[in-house]
Amino acid sequence: MQFEDFDLFSSDAAAPPPAPSAPPIVRLQYLVDNTPAVIYCTVPSGDFRMTFVSNNVTHMLGYTPEEMLADPNFWFDHIHPDDAPNIFSSLALVFTEGQRVYEYRFRNKDGNYLWMHDSLRLIRDTAGAPLEVIGSLTDITARKTMEQALHQRDNEQQLLINKLSEAHEQLLQSEKMASIGQLAAGIAHEINNPVAFVNSNMNTLQKYSDTLFGVIAQYEAVAAEAPAVAAKLAALRVRADVDFLRDDLGALVKESMEGLKRVRDIVQALKDFSHVDEAEWQVSDLHHGLDSTLNIVSNEIKYKAQVVKEYGVLPEITCLASQLNQVFMNLLINAGHAIREQGTIRIRTGAENGWVWVEIADTGVGIAPEHLNRIFEPFFTTKPVGTGTGLGLSLSYGIVNKHGGRIDVASELGRGTRFTVRLPVKPAEVSQNH
Questions:
Q1: Quick one: 129 and 67 in the same domain?
Q2: What is the C-alpha to C-alpha distance for residues 324 and 346, in angstroms, rounded to an integer?
Q3: Class of residue 74 by CB neighbours under 10 A (exposed 0-12, middle 13-18, buried 19+)
Q4: From residue 211, how far is each of 198, 251, 312 by CA, in Å?
Q5: pLDDT digits 0-9 by tens, 130-177
Q6: Per the confidence metrics, is the pTM higher than 0.90?
Q7: Does the residue 409 lie in any domain?
Q8: For residues 217 and 119, what is the distance between their CA atoms, to the nearest angstrom?
Q9: Residue 312 shares a structural domain with residue 190
Q10: CA 99 to CA 121: how far, in whole Å?
């Protein structure tokens, strides 16, 4: 085999012809028109009128470059009205910073708004004078939609967490109220019996003392016929101070009877407050609930506040009495805590147009305006650490809302606070179930 006529490594072998090359301007045009972003140029002044728009704008927004270049205000007129002010107010910064980035909604040919990522850069000539502004528009609608979905999901999860937290706190409060109810039932069982026989004994003692002093009076009347005996009885009477004993024994028995009545009232108030056997909606007297709650919290407020009751005429309402008593307790205790030395707690009630209202006002320190919008938030409190959980008003708000009502608050620093609980006579939830 002869190889003289074909040398693979010979420098004299014929080279393949070079591939044809596209002109640089054609290559650049192809790259610009096929990038994911729309490339555009504007004049660097005034209305930022567009001077160039890449052809891929038709695919992204539906407009032709000619349409966009023909209208000097095209860009401004198609930005979403809610996004435009922020862009217009800061666009001039491109001349000092050299570049700006915006995210805004832009109306496409179909009339829908797409989210755009717009990156602008100022180009200067060799002398440093502004030459033009080059920008690139990228469609970020998918990303924004995903962000909004994630944000909504975060909000829903946070709302669920808040609801779970509130439900947990309400469960703890319900368990505490059930424990109080069981304690009240035990107290009533253990105390009512001894209180009953002590009360009976005091009544008997009252009768015995009346009888005894009656006998003494009769002895003195009989002895009046015998001067010597009368004198001795008179001396004994003075020595024993019978008049004082009669008056003081009567006062002691009366005070003891009042004390026993107070014990019975406290036990009954505790039972009324807890309503351990009332888990259903039922018709209740709010005045009775207020009075029972006042008995429970009296030690919290009696040394610093005078309670003034201005009760109106209230119809009985359908409610969960124990839960409303809890609301009244929170408001009354807060009112007492707001009064630093001496003050007044005023309780007013009234009814109109199928609604009732209970107003609890104090002459305490008041609530700062910046805190008024937060007082019903869980765990928010203005009390010192260790003296408040920040749950009382939050739970109260939830209870009143469950009844279809609302709580209004008005306060002035240094003059006091007024809470008004408004409740329907018959909540819609109950009406729907009956």
A1: yes
A2: 18
A3: middle
A4: 20, 16, 46
A5: 999 999 999 999 999 999 999 999 988 988 888 787 777 667 766 665
A6: no
A7: yes
A8: 112
A9: no
A10: 4
